[in-house]
Amino acid sequence: MQKLSRYVFETQNKLYNSMNKIYLEKNSSELLLKENFFLSGQEKDSLEKRLFKKPEMLQLRIIPTWECNLRCNHCSVLSNLKINDPCLIEKKDVLNFCKSHLERYNHSKIRISFIGGECLIQASLCLEIVKLISNLNVDFECNLTTNLACDLTIEAIELLEKTSQFTVSLDGDEEQHNWQRKSINKNINPYKKTVANIKRCILLGFSDKMTVQAAVQEKQFDETKKEQYYKFLLKLGVKNIVYGSCHPTIQNPDLDKGYVDYLKSGSISNAPCCEYRFMRFFTINSKNELSSEYYTAENKFGNLKDFDFDFIENIYKNKIKNNMSILKDETCMNECPVVAYCWGKCVNHELYNKDFAEQPSKYCDREKLIKKIRNLAFQEKL
Q1: What is the pLDDT of residues 29-67, one digit of tens each?
Q2: CB distance 215 to 169 below 8 Å
């Protein structure tokens, strides 16, 4: 039999292809192995087939406004924020895009994430979009990310009620949080406002769907404070808590030690970062413009009124080929058998950290991930 692809793991009775996630019997014919990209020399074709496969769902990230009530020193989009940013999103354009995507790619699954800026500033618009998409006969869920340091209007509460999940940013204790997050209204204490609204959300019955998340910079990290953070939130009644490190940003492009530890932890990523999910992931900004971007304003696909899928497919494919860091890393491309369970993690690493962009393999523990995938493949749990 011809030599197997480096993406293929042998189990007791089967072969597992980590790129296309297919199991075949060990005694499969060479023709069947070739048809499913199991043979040496098929790695490039297998990777491209995976990257540019037909989307099975639509993920929309909607930025209803770049206005924000806070200015945070660890914000990934700090330079995009505005004092006034009128929302020009047309609800009917969002609905039309969703319908057209469903029809062109023959699927029935839509996920919408509202972010910003602070998306609850435009809670009414977000709610109207949710109601429109909910009327389609599809598998639909929405989520949002909020600092929750704003007033909870009737529309905001109804929007939170309709989400399947929402994430609230609370970066440690009052001193930590307010050091990172400054209110543009000097009369508001961001920490106290957010905590008060977390309590209100719990009283409203949202504790199962609410995640409270801390993004703590390395110089502020403290194990004792982390423990106190968990105890405080659990006492309030928060059920879902995340205490993590900060992503690199324009203002601080270095990778925190905690984040490097995460990159080297052998954690599994089943799909490329959002901006590299071909024809599946899109962003709609407050100007009613369509793109695959969030952190930058590059690679726009035009106004949502005038989208052209043939045009978008071409630009999207070239964007992935020309920008995805693992495709430019010889170690990733010529040696790694588990690229499809890593993908180089988040796109903002390569945007803001040149060293990572040039060689992401320096920041991973490949052997740890290989061992994990081999064990799962042997148990046929992948």
Answers
A1: 999 999 999 999 999 999 999 999 999 999 999 999 999
A2: yes
Domain C-terminal end among 265, 297, 313? 313
Tell me which residue range forms the domain holding 37: 1-51
What confidence score (pLDDT) does residue 236 get?
A: 97
List all residues 6 or more positions away from 370 whose beta carbon is below 8 Å from its beta carbon: 337, 338
Cβ count near 87 (within 10 Å): 20
Q: Are residues 277 and 137 in the same domain?
A: yes
How far apart, in whole angstroms, are the C-alpha atoms of residue 68 and residue 78? 10
The single-letter DSSP state of residue 217 is: -
Q: What percent of the chain has pLDDT over 70?
A: 97
Q: Looking at the predicted structure, is the pLDDT value of residue 296 above 80? A: no
Signed CA dihedral, 352, 355, 358, 362: sign only: negative
Q: Is residue 89 part of a domain?
A: yes
Query: How far, CA to CA in Å, does 316 sit from each of 106, 150, 309, 374?
Result: 19, 36, 10, 32
The answer to the question of residue 90 being in a domain is yes
Evaluate whether 127 touches 158 at the Cβ level (below 8 Å). Answer: yes
Query: How open is the CA angle 273-128-85, to the nearest 5 degrees?
Result: 70
DSSP letters spanning 313-348: HHHHHHHHHHH-GGGG-HHHHHT-S-GGGTTTS-HH
Are β-strands 109-114 and 139-146 bridged in parallel, bridged antiparallel, or unpaired?
parallel
Report d(CA 139, CA 160) in Å as an integer: 18
Residue 45 and residue 72 in one domain: no
